């Protein structure tokens, strides 16, 4: 199996996330994309209830594509959601044919050297890097390649959708239909998420 992971806070998952995943299915050799909402993100604060809501929204957003799968592995592992620990568990479960592919934006990739067990992680994954504006120089990319990070840049046009802005819009009761799938918008409304 050729496995690709899409890990994130997904607070909430939005159309740009889905577009990136669909691009990978079309242009990269993968059998499935495994969406993994973080239980407790290492650099962000959230409670268990919020984590379950984020997981539910990812399930709703991905249910129409048979090659998308949602995993609650980080909920079952408990504690802070470190990518290296998750990847090790997934190798045991799926025994992929090649390195696991990993979808990541340049905003996160530029911080990859600060990630937990980064030197071990880089031996296990092939990063699929999506540009988030012009926030990453060729020089920075070259340095990471020299240090052994295996990656390729995905030439998908940047789509400026921010989870932070979506939460702010939801708090004001504004229309979210341009930014999130309909079922996700309905879930946000029904559960009154992001209301202060």
Task: Summarize the structure in words.
With 196 residues, the protein is α/β, with parallel strands linked by helices. The protein has one domain: HUPs (Rossmann fold). Helix 2 packs antiparallel against helix 9. The N and C termini lie far apart (44 Å). 33% of the residues are buried. The model has no long low-confidence stretch (mean pLDDT 92).
Count of beta strands: 6
- Report Rg: 16 Å
- Series of H and E elements: EHEHEHHEHHEHEHH
Can you name the CATH architecture?
3-Layer(aba) Sandwich
Q: Name the CATH superfamily classification.
A: HUPs
Under CATH at level 1, the class stands as: Alpha Beta
> Describe the biggest sheet?
6 strands, parallel
**Termini separation:** 44 Å
Mean pLDDT: 92
Shape: globular
Assign the structural class, choosing from mainly alpha, mainly beta, alpha/beta, alpha+beta, or little secondary structure.
alpha/beta
Residues in helices, as a percent range: 40-55%
Figure out the total of helices.
Answer: 9
Major β-sheet strand ordering: 3-2-1-4-5-6
């Amino acid at each position: 199996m050729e496995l690709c992971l899409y890990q994130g806070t997904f607070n909430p998952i939005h159309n740009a996330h889905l577009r990136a995943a669909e691009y990978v299915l079309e242009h990269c050799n993968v059998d499935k994309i495994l969406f993994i909402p973080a239980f407790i993100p290492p650099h962000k604060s959230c409670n268990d209830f919020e984590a379950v809501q984020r997981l539910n929204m990812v399930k709703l957003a991905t249910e129409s594509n048979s090659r998308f799968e949602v995993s609650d592995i980080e909920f079952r592992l408990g504690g802070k959601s470190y990518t290296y620990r998750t990847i090790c568990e997934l190798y045991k479960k799926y025994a992929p044919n090649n390195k696991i592919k990993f979808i990541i934006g340049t905003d996160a990739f530029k911080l990859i050297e600060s990630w937990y067990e980064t030197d071990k992680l880089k031996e296990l994954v092939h990063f699929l890097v999506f540009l988030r504006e012009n926030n990453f120089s060729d020089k920075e990319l070259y340095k990471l390649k020299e240090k052994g990070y295996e990656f390729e840049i995905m030439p998908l046009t940047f789509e400026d959708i921010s989870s932070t802005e979506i939460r702010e819009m939801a708090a004001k009761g504004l229309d979210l239909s341009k930014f999130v799938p309909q079922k996700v918008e309905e879930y946000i409304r029904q559960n009154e998420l992001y209301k202060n």
